[in-house]
Amino acid sequence: MANPNIVNVTVIKGQTAYVIPSTTAATTSWTHDGTTTLTGLTPAASTVNKIDSIVVTNTTATAATTTVAIANNATFGSGTVIAYLAYQVSVPPNASVIVTDKSTSFYVTENQSVGVTSGTSSALTYTASFEAIT
User: Fold this and answer.
1) d(C-alpha 57, C-alpha 131), whole Å
2) C-alpha span between 54 and 73 (Å, rounded)
3) Distance between CA atoms of residues 5 and 7, nearest Å
């Protein structure tokens, strides 16, 4: 089921995921629960993920660019980008940029993914908070 009806919710689990791209290529391997890889923030079957926030932090002394996008495929990179949340936005040195927050939350279904691209390898940390709704 690609888009479950969330009127009859049985479980809502709060989650936090992060990714630190080591290259400038598109990355979708988000880590949550400490060790679990969640490709593209794509939810499990019969679940939808409500993305509450994505924060990008530059941990270097020089500016770096970020792109955050949603693709129409569970494997970002093999699908078509359907929306950019941020496109080549400059993140100042030793600073953070809020790409989306609770006031602009969005849903990711089984046939979508969220990917990130960093202009500088290992410079940016991406943190996402989301609710897995079953």
Assistant:
1) 21
2) 20
3) 6
Cβ atoms within 10 Å, residue 127: 16
Distance between CA atoms of residues 119 and 113, nearest Å: 20
Beta bridge partners of 118: 66
Predicted confidence (pLDDT) per residue in 15-68, tens digit: 999 999 988 888 888 998 777 788 888 888 888 999 999 999 999 999 999 999
* Pair 21, 56: CB distance under 8 Å: no
Residue type for position 18: Y
What domains appear along the chain, each with residue ranges and CATH number?
16-133 (2.60.120)
Q: How many residues does the chain have?
A: 134
Report the predicted TM-score, pTM, of the whole model to 2 decimal places. 0.89
Range list of β-strands (E), the chain = 12-19, 29-32, 36-39, 48-58, 64-71, 81-91, 96-100, 106-108, 113-118, 124-133
